[in-house]
Specification:
Helix 2 packs across helix 6. Helices cover 62% and strands 0% of the residues. By secondary structure, it is an all-alpha fold. The protein contains 6 helices and no strands. The longest helix has 25 residues. The termini are far apart.
Length: 171
């Protein structure tokens, strides 16, 4: 068994696995919240996984690679009951569109993050409705309520992301 050379003062620190897994695991945990046995007269549950994904993207753009929404959307599709591949497509489109807007913005504050997240959430839910339900179904009112609830819960998701990411060293 070869012996390891001791780390010198100018050698980079070894890569830790847990900090790099926290964003993906938190999105996956949020996606499984749909399994909780909640009884509701109206289906207004927000897409918790999408909220966490956008929270991580807007808080730390280097937390997840660009291809992560594809796999995390696949995980969410397994639990949400939506048509297979819809979260994969719409989460990836929302993530890439936020990347495009972020490249054009010089500086962002929380209100702009909230607006970007609102656009990603609304787009994902509207396109998901077009894929999942027939056009003759009258679910627009419930869809608007679900979008409103989801957008209003984004600050909670951003707070949870900041709490999970509190050990990050200051840049």
């Amino acid at each position: 068994m070869p012996r390891r050379r001791p780390r010198g003062p100018f050698d980079p620190e070894p890569q830790r696995v847990w900090p790099s897994l926290k964003p993906a695991l938190s999105v996956m945990a949020a996606s499984t919240l749909t399994l909780l046995p909640l009884v509701a007269s109206f289906p207004l549950l927000p897409p918790f996984g999408l909220l966490m994904l956008l929270g991580w993207r807007l808080a730390r753009e280097d937390a997840l690679p660009v291809w992560a929404p594809l796999l995390l959307g696949l995980f969410d599709d397994l639990f949400s009951g939506q048509p297979f591949g819809s979260a994969m497509l719409f989460w990836t489109l929302a993530y890439i569109s936020i990347d495009l807007f972020d490249a054009r913005l010089v500086a962002r504050d929380f209100w702009q993050d909230w607006l970007l997240a609102a656009g990603g959430i609304a787009g994902s839910l509207i396109f998901g409705r077009l894929v999942a339900t027939p056009l003759a179904a009258h679910v627009e009112t419930l869809l608007l309520l679900q979008i409103a609830v989801s957008v209003m819960l984004y600050p909670v998701a951003a707070l949870i992301v900041a709490w999970i990411d509190r050990e990050r060293s200051p840049a």
